[in-house]
Amino acid sequence: MVLQSGFTQNADLDRSNAPGIFSIFIEILTGSTDHFQVSVFPPGRKSYAEQDRGQIVQSLYLKEEAILLAGCQHIHPFCAPSQAYTCRMLVGAGLAGTLVNLISRIEDAEPNWHGQQKLLGLVKVLLVYIGRAYALRELPAESWEMGVFTRFNKMVAADQFNRRPVTDYASALSVGLATLNTALRKVSGMTARQIIQYHIIYEAKKAAITSDLPMKTVASDLQFGDVAHFSKFFRIGAGTTYSDYKRAFVI
């Protein structure tokens, strides 16, 4: 497998809202020489307007698969699919320089087996650094919609192997289904049903990449009574068959 397939490098900014891609920007703030901002846009979220940007000094477009391969799916703000809002973190010049250097080294990695191992290590270090900055960031006030989104995702994640009707989640959150969908769309751009499907396809991708489980077992674990139904669901969600996806991301 060529791990570079897990990255979108030197891409047009319009790709920043593509499914399954995290967009990372390192910017120097306007009017400053030593104050930087790290912005992380989760999959499906359009990057902010041109006039809102500082000067971008480095960027990286990172697919979910690269995060899974690096074993960093637990690091915030890269915990797809529960991460649906944009994160911005102020960092000093030292950390910004380190991140810029890491991204440059990621882009320069050779597309061979040794290069892939080096690439995985660099990705992991990059995400750990950003994760530490995320943990130390100044927390913005949480909106009601964000609170609903956070609680909804926690419930869906807890029920990932025991799916419930969408109306059950609305009742548990003491809101109507229409209100729930409106709140979730405002935060993530997705409805409740779409977020649930995202959770399921993400767990299927994770199983394909990080385990040796056969498709039949994964389908059963994710509460699909029919393997053919799971196969179709995965092909629609991942854009390829389960077996081809698994082969593509085996090192």
From TrEMBL:
<dbReference type="GO" id="GO:0003700">
    <property type="term" value="F:DNA-binding transcription factor activity"/>
</dbReference>
<dbReference type="InterPro" id="IPR018060">
    <property type="entry name" value="HTH_AraC"/>
</dbReference>
<dbReference type="GO" id="GO:0043565">
    <property type="term" value="F:sequence-specific DNA binding"/>
</dbReference>
<feature type="domain" description="HTH araC/xylS-type">
    <location>
        <begin position="150"/>
        <end position="248"/>
    </location>
</feature>
<protein>
    <submittedName>
        <fullName>Helix-turn-helix domain-containing protein</fullName>
    </submittedName>
</protein>
<keyword id="KW-0238">DNA-binding</keyword>
<dbReference type="Pfam" id="PF12833">
    <property type="entry name" value="HTH_18"/>
</dbReference>
